[in-house]
Amino acid sequence: MSGVFKSIAAALALYIRPLCLLSVLVVLSACGGGSGGDGGQTGGGEDMDGSGPTVGTYTQISEAQTGQPLDFRVVSISNDQSDVLNIMGSLDSGRTVISVAGGSIMLTNPAGTEFMRLFDGTVAGINQFGAVGQETIMADIPVGGDATYDGVVFMTVANEEGNYSLTGDARIAVNWLNNGVDTRFDGLSGQRNDESIGSVSGTLSMINATLTGNGFSGGMLSRSGTIFATDDDSRTLDLAGQFFGPNADEVGGVFVLNANDLNVRAVFAAE
What we know:
The protein is mainly beta. It has helices at 3-12, 23-27; strands at 41-43, 57-59, 70-78, 81-91, 97-100, 103-108, 116-123, 126-133, 146-159, 162-175, 180-192, 195-199, 203-212, 215-217, 220-224, 236-244, 250-258, 263-270.
């Protein structure tokens, strides 16, 4: 069992259900890394795909200099709710660990992103997991049009049938002009109570989340499939997303659902 998986499992054990977020995260994705050491950056010109000029300067994680202090934006699940904060840290030579004050975080790159990673580890002395990277500065956030991001979601579900560890598809649709964001998770498959169950029928969406600055939150829950069934009208929802890289080329975030008969934790990355 890899170190990333062990630490993620340990982090989730602190929450209300002993769910394993994501052996699948490690099995289906290689940890982000690279041998670059010259500090590959983009900014002050065309962005990485040539879609337009950028104001900010962004460092690709795989190209960051070993030990170079960098500013990172973190979107995480901490103490059973989402948390967004800025940290300073430095990458190791393999670009798989960021050392920060009070701990370190282990990185994985299931979506093939350049400026962000999913992570698990200790930030400010608290076990957390989520997304971390070079946030898009406000001057580089689009002001009109639409964008669609496709990527991956890793999810744990606890319901009356047991504990699930799942992976699936994440799609995030953004309307920059109207400040609206729709997030959808589907195509799920994985394990229940540590036994493979193949595909799972069910879709989880947060509709019309509010775009604020270079991130988004809130929204209205839409769900299908018995795996996401709940009779608890007092359930609580928590979605937090963040844009990363030049021109908001990448997005990552976390989702939490708490109910008496259903608990969901998810992390996602897309480009």
